[in-house]
């Protein structure tokens, strides 16, 4: 059971009473009659063969209030797309599977390339952008939730609590971020959030003082959570990063476009576990190493737009300040683990902090050397201005894929 404490500038909605799922879903069903809801699932084909997604689909099959489920499928050939259509066919809700690698959607991508509007790199950010674009283009929904497809501890209460704040017409929230406890297999997980984001924000606060973006980001209990929900009129104007800075980038876009009283976070699960990335200490282009660089760059870019001036000396100071704060936090997390009968490998934690400290500096140097880098995918407002027929073409091509490849 969560506490009721409100920290920072963003409203926190707690799980105070463990309200029954049937009760929440009955209310959401009532909302859905006038405010249709959608769910976006960005996934890789490999996740269809993993341990989590089959249970997620079984749980979603029990959800009564969704008007449509939009699945973005990456890294799939034709036979794998056909298999995906069969895999998701047990969903009773209307659903669409976007074959992102198929010829029809590749032709959509080519139109975007012709106007220099295409996503700059493959990955989750691109998948999410296309899925949200489809939701916007369909014009049928008032709110949409998004969660990952590798959640091992998934149950449908997670979705109900995630979408409720933006689905309830009596609330004024435009955006909701999920948070949860990252405890699994007797240990504390969430290394990038615990050992990079939290101490880096505290270091930035020491170096630059009370910047409002740092205070805002530090208000989120789990800023890297892949679960969020929003009202669909938000989609038009947000720019989504195509790299691992996706979550931080979306939060920064919401801060740019909306007052903080239109943004909230909600406790969506007592326990949450998913597949874990390798630290990849020897390879800065993969795993948690790349993630830490991309997240650091995302923070630097946002602070620069607020007028913060960086230099090599500034980044050295940030690195040193971060390192001391992160080491102190390891002791805090270890003591918390011990008191709760959990384990925490101090050696592994310090190895992660050492890598993250190096990558904070690498990210800073990259930022200085590439001041014009723009990893954000253009907003859908800009896309529709340049290619006014593309949303209608997009919806049609997805339907044609479904019709053609669903045939036995």
TrEMBL record:
It comes from the Bacteria. Gene3D superfamilies: Spore Coat Polysaccharide Biosynthesis Protein SpsA, Chain A (3.90.550.10). GO terms for molecular function: transferase activity. The lineage of its organism: Bacteria, Pseudomonadati, Pseudomonadota, Gammaproteobacteria, Cellvibrionales. It comes from Porticoccus litoralis. This is Glycosyl transferase. SUPFAM superfamilies: Nucleotide-diphospho-sugar transferases. The keyword Transferase applies. Keywords: Transferase.
């Amino acid at each position: 059971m969560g506490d009721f404490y409100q920290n920072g500038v963003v409203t926190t909605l707690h799980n105070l009473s463990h309200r029954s799922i049937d009760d929440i879903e009955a209310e959401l069903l009532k909302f859905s009659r006038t405010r249709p809801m959608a769910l976006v699932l960005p996934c890789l084909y490999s996740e269809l063969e993993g341990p989590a997604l089959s249970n997620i689909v079984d749980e979603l099959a029990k959800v009564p209030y969704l008007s449509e489920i939009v699945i973005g499928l990456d890294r799939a050939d034709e036979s794998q797309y056909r298999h995906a259509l069969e895999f998701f066919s047990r969903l009773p809700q209307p659903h669409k599977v976007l074959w992102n690698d198929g010829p029809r959607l590749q032709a959509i991508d080519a139109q975007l390339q012709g106007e220099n509007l295409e996503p700059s790199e493959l990955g989750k950010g691109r998948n999410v952008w296309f899925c949200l674009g489809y939701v916007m283009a369909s014009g049928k929904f008032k709110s949409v939730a998004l969660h990952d497809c590798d959640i091992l501890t998934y149950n449908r209460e997670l979705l109900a609590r995630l979408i409720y704040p933006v689905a309830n017409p009596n609330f004024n929230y435009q955006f909701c971020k999920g948070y949860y406890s990252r405890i699994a297999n007797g240990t504390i997980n969430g290394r990038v959030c615990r050992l990079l984001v939290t101490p880096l924000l505290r270091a930035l606060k020491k170096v630059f003082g009370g910047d409002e973006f740092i205070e805002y980001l530090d208000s989120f209990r789990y800023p890297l959570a892949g679960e969020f929900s929003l009202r669909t009129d938000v989609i038009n104007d947000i720019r989504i990063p195509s790299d691992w800075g996706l979550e931080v980038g979306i939060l920064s876009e919401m801060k740019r476009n909306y007052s903080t009283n239109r943004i909230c976070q909600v406790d969506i699960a007592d326990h949450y576990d998913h597949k874990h990335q390798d630290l990849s200490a020897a390879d800065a282009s993969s795993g948690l190493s790349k993630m830490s660089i991309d997240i650091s760059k995302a923070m630097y870019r946002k602070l620069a737009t607020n007028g913060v001036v960086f230099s090599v000396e500034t980044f050295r100071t940030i690195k040193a300040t971060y390192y001391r704060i992160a080491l102190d936090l390891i002791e805090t997390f270890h003591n918390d683990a011990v008191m709760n009968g959990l384990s925490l490998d101090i050696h592994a934690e310090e190895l992660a902090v050492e890598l993250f400290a190096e990558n904070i500096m690498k990210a800073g140097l990259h930022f200085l050397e590439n001041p014009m880098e723009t990893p954000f995918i253009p907003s859908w407002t800009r896309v529709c201005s340049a290619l006014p027929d593309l949303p209608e073409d997009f919806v049609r091509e997805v339907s044609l894929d479904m019709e053609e490849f669903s045939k036995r």
